[in-house]
Design brief:
heterodimer, A: mainly beta, Immunoglobulin-like, six-stranded mixed sheet, 12 strands, B: mainly beta, seven-stranded mixed sheet
C-alpha cells in the first residue's frame, strides 16, 4: 500500500525568508501524481502545486516550487519570500494514475510565519 | 462558481442520533469522495464514488453509509453517531483523468461534534 510521510509536524519561518517542507512517499507504481495542499485556519483545502511523476522538471507556481526526487521518493515544497498569509497546515498527497483518484495524505506540517 | 458545497457547516449531535451530510458539485465530475480529518491524522478516506450509482469503501468506512444520488450529489449518513465520529468532514470531487492530473476539489468542510 502507498504511504505518505511528513516528518515535520511544525515549522517556523521568518517573513520574507525561505522554508522547505519535507515529504516522502512509498509506492511501487510508476504512474502517479503528487500534490501539496494548504489548509489555512478557514479550513478550506487549497491546492498549492502538483507534480506529475512522468515529468522530470520540477513544478513551480509563483513563490512555491517543489524538489521532486523520484528515485528517492521525495517531494519537498519550497516557499520563497514567505508571507504572513502562508501560515497554515500543509499536506502532501499522492494519487496513483489509473486509480479511482483516491488521495493518500500525509499527516501535515503546521507552518508559522513570524513577522 | 460554487464548486463543491457542503451542508451543514457545523453540527452537534448526541450519541445515538443520526444525520446526513450533504455534498454537491457543479463541475460535472464523475468521482466524489468523503474524508474525515482528525488532529494529527491528516485526511482519511471514508467512502468514494467513481461514478453515479457506484460507491466503495475507503480506509475508515465503519459507522457510515453513503448515497450517490445523481452525478452532482453525494451524501454521507451517520446512522447512530458515536463520540469517535467527532471530526471535520470534507467532500471532494475529481475528473479523475491524467489530463486533469487527478486534482481534487474540496468543499468547505463540516465540523461535527458528538457528545
Amino acid at each position: 500500500a502507498q504511504t505518505v510521510t511528513q516528518s515535520q509536524p511544525e515549522m517556523s519561518v521568518q517573513e520574507a525568508e525561505t522554508v522547505t517542507l519535507s515529504c516522502t512517499y512509498d509506492t511501487s507504481e510508476s504512474d502517479y501524481y503528487l500534490f501539496w495542499y494548504k489548509q489555512p485556519p478557514s479550513r478550506q483545502m487549497i491546492l498549492v502545486i502538483r507534480q506529475e511523476a512522468y515529468k522530470q522538471q520540477n513544478a513551480t507556481e509563483n513563490r512555491f516550487s517543489v524538489n521532486f526526487q523520484k528515485a528517492a521518493k521525495s517531494f519537498s515544497l519550497k516557499i520563497s519570500d514567505s508571507q504572513l498569509g502562508d501560515a497554515a497546515m500543509y499536506f502532501c498527497a499522492y494519487v496513483g494514475g489509473g486509480s479511482q483518484g483516491n488521495l493518500i495524505f500525509g499527516k501535515g506540517t503546521k507552518l508559522s510565519v513570524k513577522p | 462558481n460554487a464548486g463543491v458545497t457542503q451542508t451543514p457547516k457545523f453540527q452537534v449531535l448526541k450519541t445515538g442520533q443520526s444525520m446526513t451530510l450533504q455534498c454537491a458539485q457543479d463541475m460535472n465530475h464523475n468521482s466524489m469522495y468523503w474524508y474525515r480529518q482528525d488532529p494529527g491524522m491528516g485526511l482519511r478516506l471514508i467512502y468514494y464514488s467513481a461514478s453515479e450509482g457506484t460507491t466503495d469503501k475507503g480506509e475508515v468506512p465503519n459507522g457510515y453509509n453513503v448515497s450517490r444520488l445523481n452525478k452532482r450529489e453525494f451524501s454521507l449518513r451517520l446512522e447512530s453517531a458515536a463520540p469517535s465520529q467527532t471530526s471535520v468532514y470534507f467532500c471532494a470531487s475529481s475528473a479523475v483523468t491524467s489530463y486533469y492530473s487527478y486534482e481534487q476539489y474540496f468543499g468547505p468542510g463540516t465540523r461535527l461534534t458528538v457528545t
